[in-house]
Specification:
Layout: E1 2-6, H1 9-26, E2 31-34, H2 41-52, E3 62-65, E4 67-69, H3 80-87, E5 99-100, H4 109-122, E6 128-131, E7 153-156, H5 159-165, E8 178-181, H6 184-188, E9 192-197, H7 203-211, E10 229-234, H8 235-238, H9 244-256
Helix pairs in contact: 1-2
This protein binds 2-amino-2-deoxy-6-O-phosphono-alpha-D-glucopyranose (GLP).
Length: 261
Amino acid sequence: VRIVILSDAVSVAEFAAEEMAAAISSKATSVLGLATGGTPVGAYRQLIELYKNRRLSFSEVTTFNLDEYIGLSPDHPASYRYFMNENLFRHIDVQIKSTHIPLGDVSDLIAECCNYEARIERAGGLDLQLLGIGTDGHIGFNEPGSSLAGRTRVKTLTEQTRRDNARYFSSLDEVPTSAITMGIGTILEAKRILLLATGSNKADAIRAAVEGPLTTSVPASALQLHSATVVVVDEAAAAKLDRHDYYRRSELEGRRLGLIR
Ligand code: GLP
């Protein structure tokens, strides 16, 4: 796993946007896996800027989001569909029919999950999956205890996750208790993965994910099994990494050898 430690959240956003833009530039029909939460918003802003400056087009891009709350309709202001429309899709030229987010308000949840997997497969799989990380180490909504081989399915949210996400709702009671999420098995099939984390509240989760044992108790630790994952963190999120200096040196060495930009 490549660990990139940058000074602040703005640099993390720039790095992520550049990686995503490069993916689209080299393959206009890229299939991108997208994430919600506060962390990727800066990267989405940068991508919107690139589009507005006519340096990037999303017209042939297909997107699949990681997850959606169960019980919220797509027009609910706290739904992930609403979040993506507001923070990215309506500002760029992506075709809305090419943007996919599980539907959390359908009667047949199992069919929706199977369908979602089938749509990813039909699209040819994910070229690049963007991830944030929960304070409990979750990716998507794969909470601690999730199978490391899981597919898109329904997961119950932990109370910690509900509390963390309560800021998007008017009260904790309104936070849904479950969600549809791509599984860790689904995520690990992405050709490349980019996990972003910023802020000191992510330092424990990042340490456990990157340097801890591979365990269902820290779902993000499954990324240790993926051969093309880049973890991009700011100094605050990197603060508890034992091998901090080594990761810094590896980046310098990679650049010196012309292996990375
Ligand atoms: C939610 C999402 C995750 C996201 C996490 C962290 O639970 N399902 O995909 O990574 O929040 O969010 P934030 O970036 O706001 O810390």
